[in-house]
């Protein structure tokens, strides 16, 4: 059996069976077409579900309550203010996964004044410098 051009593949199969088992061949062909049609229909159904499904966004009940605007804490370098500043900044900015480290550094700079701001003023705002600052 040599190589068979793609267009003649079915002819090669038909010729190789040469009428020995025509009924069996027809049953196998029908079963293969049924499996293919079923698989294609299932695939199309899954694809349709993927494109139609959109996660619903639910608004928390608390969103209906108008809360006062939260101000970011400030820190001047006074050690007595450190714990309060650190806790507030950590919960509002540092632990926020939606912010990049560069954005966090920008917020940190905006919260500092005096000696604390002077200490980190040399840092360029970038993701790489946030941990160091």
Can you walk me through this structure?
- This protein is 56% helix and 0% strand.
- The protein is mainly α.
- The protein has 2 domains: 6-52; 61-130, no CATH class.
- The chain is elongated.
Q: What is this structure's SSE topology?
A:
Elements: H1 9-17, H2 22-52, H3 82-94, H4 101-111, H5 114-120, H6 127-130
What's a quick, concise take on this entry?
By secondary structure, the protein is an all-alpha fold. The protein is built from 6 helices and no strands. The model has no long low-confidence stretch (mean pLDDT 79).
Proportion of helical residues: 55-70%
End-to-end Cα distance: 74 Å
Global Rg? 34 Å
Number of beta-strand segments = 0
Structural class of the secondary structure composition? mainly alpha
**Number of helix segments?**
6
Number of domains: 2
| Assembly annotation | single chain
Query: Which outline best applies?
Result: elongated
Strand residues, percent: under 5%
The main β sheet shows up as: none
Mean pLDDT: 79
Are there runs of 5+ residues with pLDDT below 50, and where? none
Write the element-wise H/E pattern from the N-terminal end onward: HHHHHH
């Amino acid at each position: 059996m040599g190589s068979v051009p793609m267009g003649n593949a079915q002819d090669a199969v038909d010729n190789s069976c040469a009428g020995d088992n025509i009924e069996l061949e027809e049953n196998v062909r029908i079963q293969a077409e049924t499996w293919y049609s079923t698989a294609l229909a299932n695939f199309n159904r899954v694809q349709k579900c993927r494109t139609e499904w959109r996660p619903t966004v639910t608004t928390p009940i608390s969103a209906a309550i108008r809360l006062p605007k939260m101000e970011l804490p400030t820190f001047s370098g006074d050690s007595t203010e450190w714990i309060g500043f650190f806790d507030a900044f950590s919960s509002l900015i540092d632990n926020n996964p939606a912010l990049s480290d560069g954005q966090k550094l920008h917020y940190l700079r905006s919260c500092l004044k005096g000696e604390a701001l002077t200490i980190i003023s040399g840092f360029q705002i970038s993701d790489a410098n946030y941990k160091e600052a």
